[in-house]
Specification:
Helix content: 25-40%
Distance between the termini: 17 Å
Structural class: alpha/beta
Shape: globular
Low-confidence stretches: none
Strand order of the largest sheet: 2-1-5-8
Number of domains: 1
Number of strands: 8
Order of helices and strands: EHEHEEHEEEHEH
Number of helices: 5
Radius of gyration: 15 Å
C-alpha cells in the first residue's frame, strides 16, 4: 500500500475553533484533499503558547504586534519553530495555510495598522516553512495542491 503524501494544514481551515476570535473557518471543498493526503493540522499561535481567543495580531516588519500594543513576536516565532519541527519530523513537502494570517499568510498579510489594509507578504510560519523548501498554498489554492500532488505521482 502506497503511503499518502503528508500535508501540513492550518487547523482553523478544518473547522477547529483556534483562530484569534475563537472560531474555525472550515474550508469547503477539502474532501478530495482529505481523501488523497494525510493532513497534519497545526495552529502555530497555539503551538507558540497564545490563548484562544486572543487579541488580534498583525505583522509590522519582522515583529508581530497585538492590537493592544503588546509585542507577541516571540510566541509567533515559537509557533513557527514548532510547525517547522513537525514538518521536518513527518517529511512534509506541502502546506495548506490560512491566507492573511500573521503566522500562515502565504501571499498577503495585514499591514500592521489594524485598518484591514493588506500587503504582499508572508506570515512567520509560512516564511519558516518556505525556507525549509516546503511548498505553500493558501486555502483558495487547495485544488492546485491536489493537481500538483497527482503530477508528482506520474
Amino acid at each position: 500500500m502506497e503511503e499518502k503524501p503528508r500535508v501540513l494544514v492550518s487547523m482553523c481551515l478544518l473547522g477547529a475553533a483556534c483562530r484569534y476570535d475563537g472560531h474555525g473557518i472550515r474550508c469547503e471543498g477539502l474532501e478530495p484533499l482529505m481523501d488523497r493526503c494525510a493532513l497534519i493540522p497545526v495552529c502555530p499561535e497555539q503551538l507558540g503558547g497564545l490563548p484562544t481567543p486572543r487579541v488580534p495580531a498583525e505583522r509590522r516588519g519582522e515583529r508581530v504586534v497585538a492590537q493592544d500594543g503588546r509585542d507577541v513576536t516571540g510566541a509567533f516565532a515559537r509557533g513557527a519553530a514548532e510547525a517547522a519541527g513537525l514538518a521536518e519530523r513527518f517529511h512534509v513537502r506541502h502546506a495548506l495555510l490560512k491566507e492573511r494570517s500573521p503566522s500562515c499568510g502565504v501571499h498577503e498579510i495585514y499591514d500592521g495598522s489594524f485598518s484591514g489594509a493588506r500587503v504582499p507578504g508572508r506570515g512567520v510560519t509560512a516564511e519558516s516553512l518556505s525556507a525549509m523548501g516546503v511548498r505553500l498554498y493558501s486555502e483558495s489554492e487547495w485544488n492546485r495542491l491536489l493537481e500538483e500532488l497527482e503530477c508528482e505521482e506520474r
